[in-house]
Write a structure and sequence with these properties.
heterodimer; A: 269 residues; alpha/beta; Rossmann fold; six-stranded mixed beta sheet; three-stranded antiparallel beta sheet; 11 strands; 30% helix; 25% strand; disordered N terminus; B: mainly alpha; ABC transporter involved in vitamin B12 uptake, BtuC; 13 helices; globular
C-alpha cells in the first residue's frame, strides 16, 4: 500500500512546475467558492495567498494537498495528479492533532517517516537520523525530548514543518500559520520558510499579514473567490486591488517604508 | 507467604481464571490506550452492552453450552462494532446520542430475551458481571488466542495506529487508510470486549478498557511507555483481583476492577 511510494526521485525536467493549478473552479451547492484560478510554481518558489475570510484560501490549499477535488480544472504536482505521493507537507489552519498525545517532539517528527517505511516495517536508525536532521533545520534540536503538549504555538508550527521535512516533502502548504504567533515568532517562521525555499522547497502560505508579504515572498496571489491579482507583491498589492479584494471597509495607511499597512480587516458579507 | 500464593493455585479453575483475567486485561489495556487517546471509550462501552442480544440468542438456542454463547458474543460484537463505526459517519443525530439510543435498546433487548428463559437470574448475573471461575480449558485457549492476536495486530500496525491517532489529517495526506484504521480499532475493541465479558461482564468492561490505560497516561511520557504501564497495570489487576476474590470471597470481576482502580489512585500523585 505505502511501500516504496516516494517523491519522484528522478530529476524533473525544469519545464515541469512543482505546483500547477489550471483553470480551477470549485462550487459548493452551486455557489462558487473558487473561480478561474491558474498559476504555476517552479521548485524553490514561494507564494503567499492573501484575501479576506471566505475568499477560498483554505479550499485552494486543500485542493493542492489532494484532500478535495476541483469541480472543474485540474491540479498537478510535478506533472502528476495530487494524491499519489508523499512529497507534500500540509499544515492546516487548525491542526487536528491530538496535542495531549503522549509523544516527544522527535516522536512526532519521526511520524513523517511512516509513509517511506511501509507497512509492518519498523522505523530504523536511518529514519531517526533524518528526523534529527529535520529538527536541526528548523532549529528545534534542543527540544527533541520535549513533550508535544509543552510546546508554544511557534514551536508547534516548527515541529510540524520538521515533520514535513522528515517526510522529504518538496512542497509545503501552510494555512494561516502566523495566527496566534507573536511578532517575533511570525518573522522567525517566515525567515525559516524563506530559507527552505532557498533550499529548493516550493512553498505556499495562506495568510492575512499583508505587511509581511512583500518582505518575505516574491509572489503573491490576491484572492476573493477569483484571483484579483497575481505577481510581485510590490506591484500587485495596490490600494485599488486591495479594495477590490477586501471591500471599502479596508483601511490603508502609508507607512515609512512606502508600503501599505492594513489597519483593519473586515469580512465583506 | 508461599502458602498464601500456592494454595489457590492447586485448583485448576483458579489458575484458568487468573490466566484468562490477565490475558483479557492485557488486551483491553492495549486497545483501550488507543480508545482513550482517540476519545472513543464510550464506543467500547456501547459494544459491550450491544452484544447482549447476541449472547441471549446464543444462550436460548444452545441452552447451557457456554462456548457456543462465546461465538455468538464474538459475532455480535464484530457486527456491532462495524455498525457503530457507520453510525458515527452519517446521520443528523450526534454520534454519542445515536449510539446511546442503539446500545440501550440493544441492551434492553438482550435482558428481555434472557428473561424469557426459566431460571434466568443467575445466568443474567453471569453475563452482566462475568463468570471467570467457570472458564473451561477450551475457553482459556480461545481467550489466550484472541488476546494474543489482538496484541500482535496492534504491534504490527503500531506506527500507523499511532500516527492516525495523533493526527488523522496528516495521516490522510500520507494516504493512510484512516477510516479503515478506525474500523480496525473498533473490531479489535469488539474482540477484547468479548474476552473481558467473560472476566468482568458487560457492566464492568468499560473499566478494563479505560482504567489501566489512564494509569499509563498519568505515568508515561511516550506512547510505548503508556501501553507498557497500562498492560502491567491490567495484568496486575488480573493477578491480585483473583487472589482478593479467593481470600475475601468477593466476585472476581469486581475484585479485578477494584484493583485496577486502586492502581490508578496510587499513580495519581506521581503524574508527570
Amino acid at each position: 500500500m505505502m511501500r516504496g511510494k516516494r517523491c519522484w526521485q528522478e530529476p524533473h525536467s525544469p519545464e515541469v512546475p512543482a505546483v500547477e493549478v489550471r483553470e480551477v473552479r470549485v462550487y459548493k451547492d452551486s455557489v462558487p467558492v473558487l473561480e478561474s484560478v491558474s498559476f504555476a510554481l517552479s521548485p524553490g518558489e514561494a507564494l503567499a495567498v492573501v484575501g479576506p475570510n471566505g475568499a477560498g484560501k483554505t479550499t485552494l490549499l486543500s485542493l493542492i494537498a489532494g484532500l478535495s477535488r476541483p469541480t472543474f480544472g485540474e491540479v498537478r504536482i510535478f506533472g502528476h495528479p495530487p494524491g499519489r505521493h508523499v512529497c507534500l507537507g500540509y499544515l492546516p489552519q487548525r491542526s487536528q492533532a491530538e496535542w495531549n498525545f503522549p509523544a516527544t517532539v522527535l516522536d512526532v517528527v519521526l511520524m513523517g517517516r511512516v509513509g517511506h517505511v511501509g507497512l509492518f516495517r519498523p522505523l530504523t536508525s536511518l529514519d531517526r537520523k533524518k528526523a534529527e536532521k529535520a529538527l536541526k533545520r528548523v532549529g528545534l534540536e534542543h527540544l527533541a525530548g520535549r513533550r508535544v503538549r509543552e510546546l508554544s504555538g511557534g514551536e508547534q508550527k516548527r515541529m510540524l514543518i520538521a515533520r514535513a521535512l522528515a517526510q522529504e516533502a518538496r512542497i509545503l502548504l501552510l494555512d494561516e500559520p502566523l495566527t496566534a504567533l507573536d511578532a517575533v515568532a511570525q518573522e522567525n517562521l517566515l525567515s525559516l520558510l524563506k530559507d527552505l525555499a532557498g533550499q529548493g522547497l516550493t512553498i505556499i502560505v495562506a495568510m492575512h499579514e499583508l505587511d509581511l508579504v512583500a518582505k518575505y515572498f516574491p509572489h503573491v496571489l490576491l484572492l476573493r473567490t477569483r484571483p484579483i491579482a497575481l505577481g510581485d507583491p510590490k506591484e500587485v498589492l495596490t490600494p485599488e486591488a486591495l479594495r477590490a479584494a477586501y471591500g471599502p471597509a479596508l483601511h490603508l495607511l502609508p507607512s515609512a517604508m512606502g508600503t501599505w499597512a492594513v489597519g483593519d480587516i473586515c469580512c465583506p458579507r | 507467604m508461599i502458602h498464601f500464593f500456592a494454595e489457590p493455585l492447586s485448583f485448576g479453575f483458579f489458575v484458568r481464571a487468573m490466566l484468562a483475567a490477565m490475558a483479557a486485561s492485557a488486551a483491553c489495556a492495549t486497545v483501550g490506550t488507543f480508545l482513550i487517546l482517540r476519545g472513543m471509550t464510550f464506543l467500547g462501552d456501547a459494544i459491550a452492552h450491544a452484544i447482549l442480544p447476541g449472547v441471549a440468542i446464543g444462550y436460548l438456542i444452545h441452552r447451557g453450552e457456554r462456548s457456543a454463547v462465546f461465538y455468538w458474543a464474538l459475532g455480535t460484537a464484530v457486527v456491532t462494532s462495524l455498525a457503530v463505526g457507520a453510525i458515527g459517519k452519517r446521520g443528523r443525530l450526534k454520534e454519542d446520542t445515536a449510539i446511546g439510543i442503539v446500545f440501550a435498546g440493544m441492551f434492553a433487548l438482550g435482558v428481555g430475551l434472557i428473561s424469557t428463559a426459566r431460571g434466568y437470574a443467575v445466568d443474567l448475573m453471569h453475563f452482566l458481571f462475568g463468570n471467570v471461575l467457570a472458564v473451561s480449558p477450551q475457553d482459556l485457549w480461545l481467550i489466550l488466542g484472541l488476546c494474543g492476536g489482538v496484541i500482535l495486530v496492534v504491534l504490527a500496525l503500531w506506527k500507523e495506529l499511532a500516527l492516525a491517532t495523533f493526527d488523522s489529517l496528516f495521516a490522510r495526506t500520507l494516504r493512510l487508510p484512516v477510516d479503515a484504521i478506525r474500523y480496525l480499532i473498533l473490531v479489535l475493541t469488539a474482540i477484547t470486549v468479548v474476552t473481558a465479558l467473560r472476566v468482568v461482564g458487560v457492566a464492568l468492561t468499560l473499566a478494563m478498557l479505560v482504567t489501566p490505560p489512564a494509569t499509563g497516561y498519568l505515568l508515561a511520557k511516550r506512547l510505548p511507555g503508556m501501553v507498557g504501564i497500562a498492560v502491567a497495570a491490567g495484568v496486575l489487576s488480573g493477578f491480585w483481583g483473583l487472589y482478593f476474590s479467593y481470600y475475601l470471597g468477593m466476585a472476581p470481576g469486581a475484585a479485578v476492577v477494584l484493583v485496577a482502580t486502586g492502581l490508578f489512585l496510587l499513580a495519581l500523585p506521581f503524574r508527570r
